Amino acid sequence: MSEPVNLNRARKAKAKADETAKAARNRVAFGRSKAEKDLAEARRDKAARALDARKRET
């Protein structure tokens, strides 16, 4: 006879493996270093200042 399988444990193990795989995909897709985030923020700020400098007063 083979060993009985606890279906709840198997279901939870599969769910955890799926979540781990999803987290790995998200790290690749959305993960950026602090330097990259700071650079993007500085570029946004510079673009906003340049836009504000060219606005007309009405």
Secondary structure category: mainly alpha
Number of strands: 0
Question: What is the count of helical runs?
Answer: 2
**Beta-strand residue fraction:** under 5%
Major sheet characteristics: none
Helix content: over 70%
Low-confidence stretches: none
Distance between the termini: 87 Å
Overall spatial form: rod-shaped
Q: Measured on Cα atoms, how large is the radius of gyration?
A: 25 Å
Mean pLDDT: 93
Order of helices and strands: HH
When the domains are counted, the total is 1
Task: Give an overview of the whole structure.
With 58 residues, the protein is an all-alpha fold. It has one domain (7-53). It contains two helices and no strands. The chain has helices at 7-30, 34-53. The protein is rod-shaped and about 85 Å long. The mean pLDDT is 93.
